[in-house]
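Weekly sync, protein design subgroup
Attendees: M.S., D.O., the rotation student, P.L. (late)

Item 1: inverse folding check
M.S. brought a backbone from last month's batch and wanted to see whether the design step gives back something sensible before we order anything. D.O. pointed out we never logged the input encoding, so this time it goes straight into the notes. Structure tokens as presented (157 positions):
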């Protein structure tokens, strides 16, 4: 039931609802939580002056970081190199296909250059990224039969 009201409405002893003229308020019987539009509630009892502040709501699941926290931690972690090692088993075309499938944003030209450098020099840097991403890319390359490893971008441990 919605009713247009103005003035102060007593919610419970010591608490009132302040509203403006023409505001609509829904009144329900039973157990309803946060079903209406938030209103300003003030304490009217002795020694309880002022307006209560709006509570902050934490929307992350306990034990999980928010998307913002994950991005922040990845930017702060030291960069790692994903290294592709030459092998005598996989065809060059297959290596290019796997690189484009596993590494986000990897173009055909870049994949061919990485494959060619690994073929000629024994190894090639595939991508430089956060450690967690580097470990994931390395495992995906290995899962597709390629030899790969990671190392800190600084050169050694």
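Designed sequence read out in the meeting:
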């Amino acid at each position: 039931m919605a009713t247009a009201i103005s003035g102060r409405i007593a919610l419970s002893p010591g608490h009132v609802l302040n509203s403006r003229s023409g505001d609509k308020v829904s009144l329900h019987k039973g157990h309803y939580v946060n079903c209406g539009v938030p209103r300003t509630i003030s304490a009217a009892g002795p020694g309880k002056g002022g307006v209560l502040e709006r509570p902050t709501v934490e929307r992350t699941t306990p034990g999980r970081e928010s998307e913002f926290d994950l991005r922040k931690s990845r930017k702060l972690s030291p960069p790692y190199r994903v290294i592709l090692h030459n092998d005598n088993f996989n065809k060059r075309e297959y290596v290019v296909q796997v690189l484009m499938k596993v590494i986000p944003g990897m173009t055909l030209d870049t994949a061919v250059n990485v494959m060619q450098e690994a073929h000629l020099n024994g190894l090639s840097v595939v991508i430089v990224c956060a450690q967690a991403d580097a470990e994931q890319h390395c495992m995906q390359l290995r899962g597709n039969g390629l030899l790969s490893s990671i190392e800190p971008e600084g050169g050694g441990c």
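Discussion: The radius of gyration is 30 Å. The helical segments are 67-76, 92-102, 108-121, 131-143.
Action: P.L. to compare against the previous round before Friday.
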